[in-house]
Amino acid sequence: MGPVEIYHSVPQLSEYLVLETSYQPKFDFKSSKINFPESANLKNDMGLRSHEQLVVCVGVMFLLTVCITAFFFLPSGGADLYFREENSVHVRDTFIRNEALRKKEQEELLKKAEEANPVPIPKPEIGAADDAEGRRIFVKQMIKFAWDGYRKYAWGENELRPNSRSGHSSSIFGYGKTGATIIDAIDTLFIVGLKEEYKEARDWIAEFNFKDLAKGDLSVFETNIRFTGGLLSAYALTGDKMFLTKAEDVATLLLPAFETPSGIPYSLIDLQTGRAKTYSWASGKAILSEYGSIQLEFDYLSNLTGNPIFAQKSNKIRDVLTAMEKPEGLYPIYISMDNPPRWGQHLFSMGAMADSWYEYLLKQWIATGKTDQRTKREYEEAIFAMEKRMLYKSEQSNLWYFAKLNGNRVEHTFEHLACFSGGMVVLHAMNEENATIAQHYMDLGKNIGHTCHESYARSTTGIGPESFQFTSSIEAKTERRQDSYYILRPEVVETWFYLWRATKDEKYRQWAWDHVQNLEKYAKGNAGYSGIRNVYDSNPEQDDVQQSFLFAELFKYLYLIFSDDDVLPLDQWVFNTEAHPFRIRN
Ligand code: DMJ
Questions:
Q1: Is 132-583 assigned to CATH 1.10.150.120?
Q2: pTM to 2 decimals?
Q3: What residue intervals traverse the membrane (predicted)?
């Protein structure tokens, strides 16, 4: 399969030229004349004599000649290997023509920078971007800034500490340095047209040997959605087979986790020994969002490689769940590893530990070209049961949210993670033939998008907390210190993205832009972006972690919301839960 037909907007000259150029004389190639803008004439009026004008003219002519000669005769840097000609960024090529010289200059600059005391990085003029194109370019610049920090201070590590300027990792990655950011970011780098950055990431991945790098217990779910998913989408976007081989390697290493009596996989695996286990705190149980979010990647992988093993593993999980009785149609979070398995405690949620199970039911139906009717039916039944038992509207502001259920006890709390559900139901509406059902889910999606926006608007920073409550005294806010943080999560912007695509209501773009500005204000660190510890603090402390999903998800959705709809059209692409796009089958 060759590179796909993805609209790849060619970045404009203005992206690279930040200087105001309107005061410079312009060379008219047709008439071979130099035209001075009005402001230049002003100078004339202010006293340039004719021989001085002549000197300026000759000088400008000379400079233009040098530039044109350099443009046409210096050799190409060859960074276009993986790009179609129509996607190439010609303006930028002038910067990469003399690769050797550029590298030398870069090394010298780096040396100088390292010798000097760190200088605070100026914050860009965020007020300047006042249309979608300018905002899209601004997001691209944010991506470049965050990537440069990772590249310089944490290359090959899982994540970056943007303020300490060092590597960071969390337990989901084990304790090896497996370059999670590189793999999670590569599709975004490609989509936004950061060519050199993409090329460098691609070269690193070509040498990537997961088994050698991974150490300790890794999360099967996170490895699947970030690594297998990231590599699959890189393949889907570029047609570069290397990515597919790597995706298959990663997924193959996960297979021992599926060797359980029921086929429901363990949560953790040590790739060196193949030993797998559940979390120590989960009392020997597996977790719905984890074992339920395998099928999109595994099914796609089998489909692309012709190797049936992956689809067999994910279908087995689905079969086991189909056969089980669901309490009032709901899916509890915990399940035992026996055959047949038993549900654990009756805890139900649209957020943590449950979320992507529902998302994958819907998206698997879409990914199969809407042929998998069993999946569609199970999705509809699950959402219907949740609407019936868990959907509430707040008393004062009429804000809609899915509460949590513990047995029959209702907890009126909604998580940032659960905000993804607005986008999910909108995606359902966009794919639903029955107009009444479609309208119902479009309305629900709008309501959830609004609730999640309120959780942002009601905080001091304009950024929403990890989790918020609905009580007689507060709505869409939290008074719990432990729930007040924000770790660059994408779910709220994700929902606004789907709403934007479905409705074209400008308010969703505006909300996304507000978030961009708040990220600049509160989450921007020295060499990247960081989470913040308290969204209700006017001067919030940063947590010094640049999560890999910042690139995979938040940046991608922000970039897409300011792009045209033919950048990853939703009738051709479906996003996995880490926002890695996969091709929808015919
Ligand atoms: C991502 O890793 C995925 O979206 C996952 O499904 C849950 N949420 C995180 C980011 O918040």
A1: no
A2: 0.80
A3: 54-74
* pLDDT value of position 517: 97
Cβ neighbours around 70 below 10 Å, total: 12
Residue 60 has pLDDT above 90, yes or no: no
**What are 334's two structure tokens?**
């915990």
- DSSP conformation class of 26: E
Paired tokens of 211: 């088994």
Examine the residue annotation and report whether 491 is marked as an active-site residue of this protein. Answer: yes
Ligand 1: centre distance to CA 353 (Å): 10
Give the distance (Å) from ligand 1 centre to CA of residue 395. 30
What is the arithmetic mean of pLDDT over 117-142?
Answer: 70
Q: Ligand 1 centre and the CA of 172: distance in Å?
A: 12
- Between 45-59, 211-225, 264-278, 431-445, the lowest mean confidence (pLDDT) is in 45-59
Other C-beta atoms within 10 Å of 274: how many? 13
Q: How far apart are CA 335 and CA 350, in angstroms?
A: 17
* Residues above pLDDT 70, as percent of the chain: 79
- The 10s digit of each residue's pLDDT in 482-520 is 999 999 999 999 999 999 999 999 999 999 999 999 999
Active site residue 355: yes
Q: Tell me the residue type at 258.
A: F
Q: Catalytic residue among 159, 184, 197, 222, which?
A: 222
Q: What are the helix (H) ranges across 88-163?
A: 90-96, 99-115, 132-154
Question: Whose C-alpha lies nearest to ligand 1, atom 3?
Answer: 578
Q: Ligand 1 pocket, 415 CB below 6 A?
A: no
**Across 318-390, where does the E strand assignment appear?**
334-335, 347-348
Domain borders along the chain are 132-583
